[in-house]
Amino acid sequence: MAAAVALAVCGSVGSALAAAPRPAAEDLNTIHPDPAVRQGVLANGLRYLILRNATPPGAVSLRLAIDAGAYDETDDQLGAAHFVEHLAFSGGDNGHLEGPERAFAQAGVSFGRDLNAETGLFSTVYRLDLTKADPAVLAQAFGWLRTVADGTRFTPAAVDRERGIVLAEREAELSPASIAQQERQAFMGPGLRVTRPVIGTPASLAALDPGKLQAFYRTWYRPDNAVVVAVGDADPEQLLALVQKTFGGWTAAGPPPVRPAPGKLDLTRGEQALSRADIHMASQIGACSLRPGAAPGADDVARLRERLLSDLWIRLVDKRLGELTRNGHPPYLKAAVGRETDLREAEVTCLNVMLLDERWRPALEAAQGELSRFRAHGPSQDDLDEAIDNMRAKLRGARDQGATRDTSDLAGRMTARALKHDVVTTPNEDFWAFDAAVETITPDDVRKAFARDWSGAGPFLIVEAPQPPPATELTAAWDAGAKAAPPPAAPAETRKAWAYEDFGKAGRIVSRAAQTGPDFVRIRYANGVVLNFKKTDFAKDDVQVRVRVGAGRQEIPDADFFAANFGAGLLAAGGLGRHDFGDLQRLFANTGWEAKLAVGTDAFVLHGQTNDWSLRSELQVLAAFLSDPGFRPEVDARIPTAVETVYRQYRAQPAMALNFALMDALAPGSPATLPPQARTAALRMADFQRLLKPALTEAPIEVTIVGDIGEGTASEFVGETLGALPPRKDTPRTQASTWFMRFPDQPPALIRATHEGPADKAMVGLVWPLYVATPERRREEITLGLLAKVFDDDLRHRVRQELAQTYSPHVGTSLPDHADQGLLMAAVEASPQSIEAMRAETAAIAERLAKGQITEEELEAARKPLQAEYAARMTRNAWWVGVLDGSARTPEGLDEMRVEPGLLASVTLAEVREAAARWLGKPPIAVVVLPEAAARPASAATAAR
User: Which residues on neighbouring strands pair with residue 291, listed in sequence order?
Assistant: First the structure.
């Protein structure tokens, strides 16, 4: 359960399925609803939306949305909307200690993944995703939603218990980033209701009693202020009958409530600056303008046109800002603009710039110059046409994939649109509406929209850095930039042709073998390339690609392991020999491209996601990275700042501090530890080229393609690209010995560490060493997974539900084959004052489990969600491409897929008890992470007019 935050700047184009014909001119402004969505209103005012959707088969997703959030609280109710959500989720005193997660576990529902709730500024949404919705489970699900709606009891005991959980959630969400966000909001929007912290403050939460919470609940939880959404593979008539039966008797208490008066935006506020000293955040500078929020209007083509005007200038300015980073002397690390328009009281437009080497003046000057250029000249017609084409391509992709939209995603989208009283459309209708909206847009329209969006109060300038300049210097620099003559219009862009269309004569297929269990095809080309191919219909037009080369971690010198992983993340940024990253972005703006590299235990894996009509270009991109990767030195200038930012964030995160402290204690100086920052900052693209290029360009290739595409097409495209590359020798690539983590015979019983983050956050982890996993021990691995889930359920029930000391404790295992020694770990984040108690409680649960105190009911409550998740994974292309990837050389993944469902179903209670006695009966390694006792202040601020 989560509380959303306000004033987060973003911009997006909505996408959503069969457009109706437009018989008359007056219809050209109308956006038509999806005729398949059954919508209506019960006699008590409850709105409902029902849609049949069969992806995945058998699943049904339910949503109950209340049209009220933190914005609607009175001053003495701060935090009440979110607090009420917590209590309503579990039924208050009706079922608090058990909670719906235990009730639904037997139906395969996992808490957090399938069952959750979220409170925002303007709404509260309860979510339940059922993988197999038989009548009994559906009735149970609707019954829970009705309890949420009007069956919650606010007893003192329940409120006091839940208060601890809410406070723990607040602590879990507290971070340097959230603290900075709160300070920015207070600076830019004093007096606006949208700056209220959704989760409340410690003082406001302490003051919330059953009476105040019940008052909020009765005021806003009423049928005429709620929406029920039901989407999935079930008869719509059946779902409608359940809606009517479940909610028809829900009655409202009294007349509809009056919304609180909105805060007033002070439009007389001119330029102001905030200077924040912060040693943990990325050094950055920003400029924002606030203007009054637009009044709600009809969801039609005219309104869409206004939104698209803003989206277009954002896209065009972002493009220019990005181009400035693609040389050897960039003025900043990264820059972008964005807008937030869903805040009712205000629309926020911001420029955000991440500094390079703490140099704020050139960063501000360059970014402000691009804003001035666009204000003066706007876009060219060619640039505008390209931006529109790029946006249209994404909508076309959504339209083409409309027949297999995911049920849970659909339910979420329908709920969000219903809360805004927007039209619930089809992807086809979205495509039509977009074309209708952009038909008359001109470059001058976009330039005027830019000026409109930057009008209002401000600009509000904010700089954050370890040693930021005074606010007065910031305003002086901005004023100087504002008075300077705007730069000339950007020169016309030179359009480059794609240089990697022809890899030579297409590769010849020398063998084709149909495989069974699972069903797929393995094809070999004359140059040695192996293709694993599986056609699916899970997601229309979706195609997943993986290419495997080399020996991965086992061919990297131990001392370079961290560098290889770091460099893998920069492969795409390094471009190609004949194209830089910017070229790739422009060339494939309409189709998209992906080249994500990972260093696996026994191979390097390139991943791409595409569709049937752009698979050829995606394979061309991957073949280019496998034959001519760029590792361009232009990226070098940004590496030290990127490293500095990452290390700052690491130091402020208790979980990172825990992991590194554990590795430092168990294997000091090993590849698993974090290298000194100076060594990482000294890395350059030439280092990554040395480590990664040999495998990319010389090692044999195995490619896997899974998705909605024919075998003939896929094999032809592979033949033209990877199959056309020169043959590669299959020579040994592993080094003499690769370091893998092994626990010492006498590991330390207790490890203590500190973090530099918020002072009221601490963490404890208990670690039980396991064994080095092999396929032969798969049953034991599955058994340990079940044990970890039982442990996880018990730990959450005890320390969250009963003791209310933490928000999201977690237990899990790590057991990679033929690699690091496995472990089972339980982790709890809590306040420093309660962390030792959490350590003791976690150890006590482990001791109870080790004594065999596990019931059949607990085992099945753990087993059923795991089985449901496994069944769901088998309907996803991304899972299948992972299973088939590398199966020609190492078939263990196939073996695991074949046996895992049976093992998961057949592991007995006796086996789980035996595993608990064997592994949890040993003393764990405890890692306790506390905030630094004498840490420097997280932030300090100065302001100037």
Answer: 347
Q: How confident is the model at residue 97 (pLDDT cuts 50, 70, 90)?
A: low
Specify whether domain 272-483 bears CATH 3.30.830.10.
Answer: yes
3-state secondary structure of 32: coil
Query: What is the C-alpha to C-alpha distance for residues 825 and 424, in angstroms, rounded to an integer?
Result: 44
Tell me the pLDDT band of 376, cut-offs 50, 70 and 90: very high
The yes-or-no verdict on residue 524 having pLDDT over 70 is: yes
Separation of first and last alpha carbons in the chain: 40
Please tell me the CATH code under which domain 2-8+37-247 is placed: 3.30.830.10
Confidence check: pLDDT of 943 > 80: no
d(CA 26, CA 302): 12
Rg (CA), the chain: 29
Q: 284-292 and 457-465 as β-strands: parallel, antiparallel, unpaired?
A: antiparallel
> How confident is the prediction for the chain on average, in pLDDT?
92
Strand partners, 116: 127
Q: What's the CATH code, domain 750-931?
A: 3.30.830.10
Rounded average pLDDT over 714-728: 98
Judge whether residue 916 has pLDDT over 70: yes
| Sheet with 38-41, side-by-side order of all strands | 2-3, 115-119, 124-130, 60-66, 226-232, 47-52, 38-41
DSSP annotation string for 118-148: EE-SS-EEEEEEESS--HHHHHHHHHHHHHH
- 493-502 b/e (C-beta count within 10 Å ≥ 16 → b): eeeeeeebee
Which sign does the torsion angle of CA 202, 204, 209, 213 carry?
Answer: negative
Domain with CATH 3.30.830.10 in the chain: 2-8+37-247, 272-483, 509-724, 750-931
Q: 509-724 adopts what CATH topology?
A: Cytochrome Bc1 Complex; Chain A, domain 1 (3.30.830)
**Tens of pLDDT along 858-896?**
999 999 999 999 999 999 999 999 999 999 998 888 988
Q: How far apart are CA 182 and CA 201, in angstroms?
A: 12
Q: What angle do CA 474, 479, 485 make, to 5 degrees?
A: 135
**Residue 375: partners with Cβ closer than 8 Å, 6 or more residues away:** 447, 450, 451, 454, 486
Say how far apart CA 849 and CA 916 lie, in whole Å: 6
* Farthest-apart Cα atoms in the chain, separation: 82
- Give the Cα separation of 218 and 436 in Å (integer): 44
CB atoms within 10 A of CB 855: 10
Task: Summarize pLDDT for 283-311 with one digit per residue, the tens.
Answer: 999 999 999 988 888 899 999 999 999 99
Summarised one tens digit per residue, pLDDT across range 197-233 is 999 999 999 999 999 999 999 999 999 999 999 999 9
Do you know the residue count of the chain? Answer: 945
